[in-house]
From TrEMBL:
Localization per record: Nucleus
Designated name of the protein: Snail family transcriptional repressor 3
Taxonomic source organism: Loxodonta africana (African elephant)
GO molecular-function terms, A-Z: DNA-binding transcription factor activity, RNA polymerase II-specific; RNA polymerase II cis-regulatory region sequence-specific DNA binding; zinc ion binding
Any one Pfam family match given in the protein's UniProt record, by short name: zf-C2H2
Length: 270
DNA sequence: CTGGGGAGGGGGCCC
DNA sequence: CGGGCCCCCTCCCCA
């Protein structure tokens, strides 16, 4: 499939309950090994209060329990797209205790480093603090930062232009209009009636009728109607082709030839 | 099976 | 914003 740089990837847009954690105080630590965790649903708001009667909770990305009586509940931070964009972060909430040990200063800097690697664009995580990277306002809670970003920094959410003929989405109207031409095919060949999305595609097609071949190989003087085909042909004159097999180091002039070579099982992987 | 030509499609860039 | 062009790519077919 051709690369589609403008096609947006789908992401979750479930509406979070921003008030759910608003009244809670949070501390946070970060562990990089969070992708293999099995999600559990977050309990209702009333269950977020600890059995000891105070509202302090510890929010942690480390799933390790702290005591046998302390249940862990999972919050999917991807439910907060205004905080972290499309990044999926798992936050474990310690329901009954103060959570794992608060990092010392050296561990804290490590936490900061991991956090900046995990979500570089939207939110900066600190121990006990969420900061908006756009206006640098500090927030004690995820929900607070989320609400701030929704009301102030993300007033104009990213627009999304969807094609009515297929499921593709584009970040700009121009990109969508260009894509729509692949459905409407406005460029029609007067000689055979074949339709194309772009004028230059039609131009290249008309060459198949006229036999015009304006692109000439400097090595063998062979002529081509299409510049891309000349480029592919030039590879045949090269000793070292562009696409190399990782198994046997054999090179090929085209990616399709390399793919066919690898699929043939010539060089089975380890 | 492999190499290569022909035809066509997609997004990006520039004017 | 639209057109033209570029680059990269795929698919089909044939020798």
């Amino acid at each position: 499939m051709p690369r589609s740089f403008l096609v947006k990837t789908h992401s979750s847009h479930r509406i979070p309950n921003y008030g759910q954690l608003e009244t809670q105080r949070e501390t946070i630590s970060v562990s990089p090994m969070i992708n293999s965790l099995r999600p559990r649903p977050l309990l209702p708001q009333e269950s977020l209060h600890t059995s000891k009667g105070h509202s302090a909770l510890t929010v942690c990305t480390d799933p390790l329990p702290c005591s046998s009586e302390c249940p862990l509940n999972l919050l999917l931070l991807s439910d907060y797209p205004h905080v972290l964009g499309a990044v999926t972060i798992l936050i474990w909430i310690h329901m009954e205790c103060s959570g794992p040990q608060i990092p010392n200063s050296s561990e804290e800097s490590q936490v900061q480093e991991q956090a900046s690697l995990s979500y570089p664009h939207k939110a900066k995580l600190q121990v006990g603090c969420f900061e908006c990277l756009d206006c640098h306002r500090p927030y004690h809670t995820v929900a607070g930062l989320a609400r701030h970003r929704q009301l102030h920094c993300d007033l104009q959410p990213r627009r999304c232009f969807s094609c009515k003929h297929c499921d593709k989405e584009y970040a700009s109207l121009g990109a969508l209009k260009m894509h729509l031409r692949t459905h409407t095919l406005p460029c029609v060949c007067v000689l055979c009636g074949k339709a194309f999305s772009r004028p230059w595609l039609l131009q290249g097609h008309i060459r198949t009728h006229t036999g015009e071949k304006p692109y000439t190989c400097s090595h063998c003087s062979r002529a081509f109607a299409d510049r891309s085909n000349l480029r592919a042909h030039l590879q045949t004159h090269s000793d070292v082709k562009r696409y190399q097999c990782k198994g046997c180091a054999k090179t090929f002039s085209r990616m399709s030839l390399l793919a066919r070579h690898e699929e043939s099982g010539c060089c089975p992987g380890p």
